[in-house]
Amino acid sequence: MKTSLLFAFLLLSTFKSFCQLEMGQSKNKAVIFLQVLEQNNPRWLFNEKYGKYGLNEIEVKKYNAMYYDLKLRTDAILHFIFEEGTYSYRTTEFPHLSAEFVKGKFDEFYGNTKIGDYYFVENYQYFNHIRSEGNHAVVYFRKTALEQLPTAVTKELDKRKDEMESNQKQQEKAAIDFHYINQYHDIEEFKAGYTQKAFPEIVKAYLKVQKEYFKKDGLFSDLKALYKVKLSQREGSWAYTGSTKKIHSNTEDFQLRHFSDLRFEFQLPKVTTEYHGRERALSIEVNLLFDLQLDRGEIELKKKKGEIKFTSDHQLSEEQEKYIESQLASYEKGNYKIGYQFGTISGMDANFIIVNEL
Predict the structure, then answer these.
(1) Neighbours of 97 (CB within 10 A)
(2) Which alpha helices (H) appear in the chain, and where do they start and end?
(3) Are 130 and 102 in contact (CB under 8 A)?
C-alpha cells in the first residue's frame, strides 16, 4: 500500500483517509474510494472536473483545517489528477501559505531526502516538488520517474539508491547474524560427537539426582519408557534447563523430570563464535534419547550378625540380592526397608537402592 509522507506531515488529521489511494490505480477504483470519502466527510467540498475524454480531476477543498505538524489552521485544495484511465498524480494548494514557508517546513522535516528542489519519500519511490503559483504554495506529489527529473538529480538519486541498497543488505545481514547469535544451536554443530561422548556422564548425573528424589516421588513400580530429552543453556550462563517429550511409556504415573538440577552435577561446555570482532557465547542445546528399562520396587529385610534375610516377598534375582547385600555391607544390624531400581538407561547401568531403617 503506497502512502505519502507529505500527508503525514501536512494532512495528519486526514492522512488515513487517503492512504488507500495508489498512483497507477485505475480511475474507476480511485473515484469510488473518493466518493465514499466524500460521504464520510460532509465538511469537505468535492468537485468533479471533466475534459475532452471525461473525468480528469477530483478537487477536494478543506477550510480552516488543523495541520498539527504546521501548528496552524489553514485552507488546502487537493487535486487528484487522472490520465489515461489511471490516478496519475496529486497536487496540494495552500492558498494562504507561500512557497518559501512550505519549503522551510520541508527542509526542517525532510531535508535528509532532499535532492535539488525535490523531496523524496518512501525509499525514493515518490517525490514532492514545491512551486509558487499565483503567489501561494503548490506541492506536486508524483511517482519517481527518472525521465521527469533533471540530470543532476538522477545522478544523485542513483547514488543514494545504491547506498540505500547497500545499507539494506548490511541490515539484512546484521538481522541474520543477530538471529543466528540469539537462537539455540545443537551442540553437534560445533562439537561433533559430544553427545555420545558425554552421555555416560549425563546419565550418571541424572541417576544421582533421581536417587535424591526417588523416595520423595514415591514411584517404586517398573518403568519401560522412551523419552526425548533436551538440555538448553542460554549464552554465557552455566545453568541450563531440561525439557522432555514422552514417546511411549508403560505408565502415566511417571514423568521424566528434575533435569534442571543436573547443572549441579554436570556442566555443559561453553560454545563461542566471533561476532562483531569479538568472541560471543552461543546458546546451545543437547538432544538426548532416554530409553528407560527399569525394574523398581520395595522390599523389607533384616540384617543380623553380618547376614541378611529378606523378610518380604520379592522376585529379585540372585544377582540383584547380592547387589543389595553389597550396598548394605557398612550398615549396622537392624530391620530395613529398601527401595530399589535395577535396569538400564539407554543401555547404561542404572542400579541403585534407597535404604530406610524400620
Answers:
(1) 21
(2) 5-10, 15-18, 27-40, 99-110, 151-182, 194-217, 318-327
(3) yes
Cα–Cα dist 341/217, whole Å: 13
C-beta of residue 137 within 8 angstroms of C-beta of residue 87: no
Residue 121 CB neighbour total at 10 angstroms: 20
Residue 336: which of 314, 308, 355 has the closest Cα? 355
316: closest CA among 292, 347, 295?
A: 295
Arithmetic mean of pLDDT over the chain: 86
CA dist 148 and 351 (Å) reads 84
Q: How far apart are CA 155 and CA 93, in angstroms?
A: 30
Q: Give the SS3 label for residue 167.
A: helix
Q: Classify 8 in phi/psi space as left (phi over 0), alpha (psi -120 to 50) or beta.
A: alpha
What would the pLDDT profile of 295-323 be if each residue is shown by its tens digit?
A: 988 899 999 987 899 998 888 999 999 99
What pLDDT score was predicted for residue 270?
A: 87
For 64-101, write each residue's pLDDT tens digit: 877 775 677 889 999 999 999 999 999 999 999 999 99
Can you give the pLDDT at residue 218?
60
What is the rounded distance in angstroms from the CA atom of residue 103 to the CA atom of residue 109?
A: 10
Give the closest residue to 178 by CA, choosing from 99, 261, 82, 276.
276
